[in-house]
Amino acid sequence: MINIRKLESELWDSADLLRAGSKLTSNQYCMPVLGLIFLRYAYSRFKKVEEEILKGRPSRGGRVMPVEASDFSAKSALFLPKEAQYEYLVNLPENIASANLINKDGHQMNSLGEVVNNAMQLIEEQSEQLTGILPKSYTDFSDELLAELLRIFNNSALDDVGGDVIGRIYEYFLSKFAPVVASDDGVFFTPKSLVKMIVNILEPKQGILLDCACGSGGMFVQSGDFVNAIGMNANNTMTFYGQEKVEYNAQLCLMNMAVHGLSGVVKSGNEANTFYHDAHNLNGCCDYIMANPPFNVDKVKAESCESAGRLPFGMPSVNKNKEVGNANYLWISYFYSYLNENGRAGFVMASSATDSQGKDKDIREALIRTGHVDVMISVGNNFFYTKSLPCSLWFFDKAKSEDIRDKVLFIDARNYYTVVDRTLNEWSEWQIKNLNAIVWLYRGETEKYTALLKEYHNYLHSEADVIDDDELRSAVNQDLFAEIVSALKEKLSSLRKIAKVDVESAEKRDKKNVQKQYDDRISHIDNMLTVAKEANWLYEKFGNGVYVDVLGLCKLASISEIEGKGWSLTPGAYVGVAPIEDDGVDFAERMVEIHRELLSLQAESNDLMDTISQNMKEMEI
Q1: For the domain with range 191-442, which CATH number is right: 3.40.50.360, 3.40.50.150, 3.55.40.10, 3.50.50.60?
Q2: What is the average pLDDT across 376-401?
Q3: What pTM was estimated for this model as a whole?
Q4: 88, containing H or E segment
């Protein structure tokens, strides 16, 4: 498994080094570089879909029928003509002028910049929504610089791990360019795990989806994937609308949608400032609202907001300058107002909004009394590339069933996540499914919970077959997840001890190979253990499929209970604190051990300093 963060960093360092050596500013460099990653991303997806198309392709006279643009649109993918395919571009000869290449208008091309511009124009012809969107300033680059950039983004590691990781690279570059090209602190996109959670809880299938703070379009892309995964075609069943004040971000959104084969209408600029404009006239019309709006925006003109409407619960507090000092409840009001009578909304919001006071509290009370607040989820720190603050996920549902109409499900997930590195956390795929399962049980959708247990069972069973372990197979067959976790921990500990001995005793020339073999086996079991732990986490709380309140995790609260808490929507105020598990370690004994280790390390440090000092004296330094 490749280290994605390391790859992101290496690609950025390489690309930024080239920028530093050119005469281009970051602003001039940003969009063309993202355009090249777009090309690489589009090519990766193109090859994957082409492979799927060719699997069942008819043939004539022994020759397989060639693929066509319509084949790709049927699978929500972007068709790439040969001259726009990354492999073609990266393998062009050094001397473009001597290659006699002709552009789409019939003129000879004499530089690599012209060839890449032509590729972008060819792609725009395949997608109406991309017309005039893709960067075409590649003649500003020298052929040497452009060729090197193409080579950098042709890293073979990207082929090994597929399009999702290229999407991560794309997002990483967005975040790195953010400070120099945007005014909103660089939050162009919502982390994928948060987007997936919103999409999975809303379950979009058909109708109108609006993201009125759409950034680079992650909500649309994930919704498209969700719809396609359940066997429907997103472009046939969904209509996507976006508003994005920053035109640059809107370009990124359209590029992102196009590479996933999605069509939609995205408006940008002043007319797309959601505070003052309903750019698509969708108030009261939307089946789904998804958004990650900028938090805590100030200096919003109150009179302009009021005249623009979409405030069913009234205006938030207005200061003496006739400005809204914190726009969080403007956003919340808009999201509710845009919904039709059966609509659902899911959005990211600053944690402070769940119990802010003053007029915010009045709006929140009115909102809760509608019975349409559905689920509230607290999210921990470090889920964003550019912000470390916690946030909340809010969900509205105007078509809640009667038995949960006067209830809200609170989930405190601040301590439930996977650490990616020191500054970034995320929910793994299994963790997203587990949190989603709590919502299913709250809604009475037991069959979905049962299907997830079956998914865990099938995964663990297949892995137990791979490592050929009868004890594990027996535990898996009985869905004894706690026993599976225990057995895997034991197996992992034993394997690590054996590995240490075998690597140390191996011949020098064989050490690396022996180490790799053990690393692969250990990684395999470690991954299996991670999944088993998640299965056990879910099963020990909800068994065979009945929702219960879990201390420190989830609580189903009535409107009267919420009123008793001062109309707070903070999950932590309801779920309580989970009991601290006894890890079986004697505290006093462990402190003695730590103190002993510290003294030993201190002694080693002193010895090392003495040695260094003696060496420096001998060198007469």
Answers
A1: 3.40.50.150
A2: 90
A3: 0.82
A4: helix 86-90
